[in-house]
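Record SDR family oxidoreductase, 253 aa.
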Amino acid sequence: MNRLENKVALITGGAGGIGQATAELFLAEGAKVVIVDMNKEALEKVIDQLDHPNLSYCVADVSKTEDTQNYVKRTLDVHGKIDVFFNNAGIEGISRPISEYPETVFDKVIAVNLKGVWLGCQYVIPKMSEGGSVMITSSVAGLKGFSGLGAYVASKHGVIGIMRVAALEFADKKIRVNTIHPGPVNTDMMRRIEKDISPENPSEALESFESSVLFGRYAEPREIADTALFLASDESKYCTGCTYVVDGGMLIA
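=>
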């Protein structure tokens, strides 16, 4: 094991399902991990559940410059370096047609999912060790459209552009930058989406999503974390500027 031995990993959205699963896996592979989220209670719950001496947290709103600077500073103060950055924080917004989508919700989704990724790249990557790895969580919604999810789809398309620019700009430091594109994942986010789409019977939305996946089920958070581990490790040292789809065949179904 120990594929991340002596590496320091920073994970935004660390209190969510994918963030927690990735933190657990990175710790098992020898990394020191800092998880970032805006919900202190949720972060403390993850700390208690994983119960690992190399895990710490920082409360931050990734859409705010000062908070971003603070989580970078805390990581460097504690560990002295950053080798791996999982730019993972994101929100789903609501499901409404573009003609009915509230502007305030659109602004919030873009602030977290797009500006938050931008700020993370702006303040984290220049502080990273040479040869480091950045993974940005996009979605299958970054590669195709989904009716009713205009803000989410726009934000997840947008982070691909940020990834490609960052991959170009930091290649001289041998820092690789890639996006991960999950299909539906068995997390609280999907429970909220299911209920938003079908308030009276969320299981109908779940069945509809599952039927759109060739494997007929949602991914588990650990399956996304496995891809993040590959990209964080030296096994991906020649991979940059790429989109990694983890969707059980959803995009070709």
